[in-house]
Amino acid sequence: MEIDRAGLAEFLRRRREALQPEDVGLPRGPRRRTEGLRREEVAVLCHMSTDYYARLERERGPQPSEQMIASIAQGLHLSLGERDHLFRLAGHHPPTRGASGEHVGPGLLRILDRLQDTPAEVVTETGETLRQTPAGVALTGDTTRFTGPSRSLGYRWFADPGARARYEPEDHAFLSRLYASGLREVLTRRGPGSRAARYAELLLERSTEFRELWERHEVGLRPRPTKRFVHPEVGPLELSCQTLVDPEQSHLLLVYTAVPGSASAEALRLLAVVGRQRLGATAP
């Protein structure tokens, strides 16, 4: 496929102009004259330089890679149909859709953008974190930084003892059962050759605990109503976890809340401050 530079430039401009800062979790600021987002704002959302993005809108520069196009599609909050169109304009075949896809739908992103002071994250059915709010990073650490199988919390739980540090020790045994059970259900649903099957194969080789749990063929376990965390800065927290599902991509939006007036609610308030401070420290 060949790149359609004119079509790509026009599509990017139209999508950028259709978005307002508040649509993507950015402050509007005073004396704003730009129609829609500024190019530098889109560049920040897409994790690329302003010059690189501006050249695309001006029909210049090299053909963007698939990784760059995926980042732009996510930054502009494109739907799956719009994402696929963007890939074709850039001269690439669109990624596959479904459970293995990692493009977060605009609906989940809009909600996530409005939850900056609330711990929240978007995860796949096999436990890879795709997006976190600043307060979410403050609660569990930056879980988007991992690569390979370690991107999955369920995989890290058995492969890396440090993955359990922020969870109440009394809950570890149940969580081990929960993750083994959940992985078996996903594997059965997706079949051999799936990501879940690969994780199970690796863990059967690596973890004695996982092998023992896997042999039980236990399914149907569900998370407890309250999740208990042990945070290195604010101490223990007891949080409820509400889940919103994107059925098209099998992505889950997890939102953590505390009972008003409780010690955990005060701890969450402190975590929100920590999240804002860290976000300000890393802002360009």
TrEMBL record:
GO molecular-function annotation terms?
DNA binding
By its UniProt entry, which InterPro entries does this protein fall under? Cro/C1-type_HTH, Lambda_DNA-bd_dom_sf, MLTR_LBD
Tree of life domain: Bacteria
Entry-linked CDD domains: HTH_XRE
Q: Which Pfam family, an example, fits this chain?
A: HTH_31
Q: Can you give the residue ranges of the HTH cro/C1-type domain? A: 36-83
Q: What is the protein's given name?
A: Transcriptional regulator
